[in-house]
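Page 37, continued from 36.
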């Protein structure tokens, strides 16, 4: 079963994921989101793979999820899938999902959207993560552009006109300093 509930993803992440999938497909990658949002039961199910009842007991996971003969899928109970900020991307080979592929080219496209990949632990796992924004003099313009996009999305929702004025000043400062149109 494929768990790709796009409607349950966080809006910002969903938009980035859709742009990423569109760009990757335009470069002839036959890929899709195999798993996106997960509820807690699904996370327990995947965590139970390759684990015994005793191991699940120490993690406070119900013993019914133990499936020690299945291959390990996840290392955590606190996945970004639970918050709608992650997706597992797979390749389609003969209409079947395949994880045995070179993800390096996809990772390069993904980085354009300032998103994170868990290579080498889980190469197929891509997530929204602001911690990947490492501030340095080489990427400040990129970060300013991301901030401007996010500021413009929330500007009209601000109830206070003084705050709107300050946000407008910040946006103008970023545009001027980093020569952004």
């Amino acid at each position: 079963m494929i768990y790709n509930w796009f409607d349950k993803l966080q809006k910002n992440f969903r938009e980035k994921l859709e742009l990423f999938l569109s760009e990757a497909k335009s470069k002839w990658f036959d890929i899709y989101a195999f798993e996106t949002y997960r509820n807690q039961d699904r996370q327990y199910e995947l965590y139970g793979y390759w684990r015994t009842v005793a191991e699940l007991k120490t993690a406070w996971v119900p013993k019914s999820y133990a499936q020690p003969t299945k291959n390990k899928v996840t290392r955590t109970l606190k996945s970004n899938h639970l918050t709608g900020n992650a997706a597992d991307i797979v390749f389609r080979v003969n209409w079947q999902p395949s994880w045995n592929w070179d993800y390096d080219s996809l990772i390069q496209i993904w980085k354009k959207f300032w998103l994170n990949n868990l290579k080498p632990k889980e190469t197929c796992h891509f997530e929204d993560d602001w911690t990947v924004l490492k501030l340095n003099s080489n990427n400040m313009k990129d970060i300013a552009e991301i901030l401007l996009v996010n500021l413009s999305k929330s500007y009209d929702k601000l109830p206070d006109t003084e705050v709107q004025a300050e946000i407008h000043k910040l946006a103008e400062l970023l545009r001027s300093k980093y020569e952004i149109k």
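Residues 140-177 form one domain. Flag for discussion at group meeting. The longest helix spans residues 161-177.
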